[in-house]
Amino acid sequence: MSKTLLINEIFFSIQGESTYAGRPCVFVRLAVCDLRCAWCDTEYAFYEGTRMDLDEILVQTNRFPASLVEVTGGEPLLQKNVHGLIRRLLDTGKEVLIETGGHIDIAPVDSRAVLIYDIKCPDSGMSDRNRWTNLELLRPQDEVKFVLASRRDYDWARTVLENHGLADSRTVIFSPVWGALEPSRLADWVLSDGLPVRVQVQLHKVLWGPSARGV
Length: 215
What we know:
Layout: E1 4-14, E2 24-30, E3 50-53, H1 54-62, E4 68-72, H2 82-91, E5 95-100, E6 114-119, E7 143-148, H3 151-164, E8 171-176, H4 183-193, E9 198-199, H5 203-208
Parallel strand pairs: 2-4, 4-5, 5-6, 6-7, 7-8, 8-9
Antiparallel strand pairs: 1-2, 1-3
């Protein structure tokens, strides 16, 4: 029986986040998420999806001239067949990024992939869902992201950063919620505290606006 995934959309765009920002990238967005972050900008992925088998997903992904693929959501790790997709993408020579909300066990993820691991801050309303044991499973190539909506989020993220030594061996990104926290204010806080993090805005929203879909 063919393995399938519930896919919200597959599209070609410029990577807007992580240290891979600015690179052409194919996005495979899986449907369904069990979190409800207050600032979520992809709520349409909660419910909209088409079931596709892995072969069809690979065909669509290979239509685009890019070596970089991001598997995102929704929450991609909710669907167990995603691991087969990740493995097959890697086996064909693709660089694979996985955007995950950090509340699902990451142990099964192929060690060749790169996790963009999103730790939920208090203003998201989902910080109680963080799976802290996952932090022990992160690899040096993985990147940790905090999406910040306020000074409260910043202070909380700074404490998590320091208590867990997150920046000791990997990239940590502080990203302001679009329209809620001015990037310049976040940058001032980071400079004042001398934090070893990367301040990053969502490049795709700078290029095409905050409401554009499929970019």
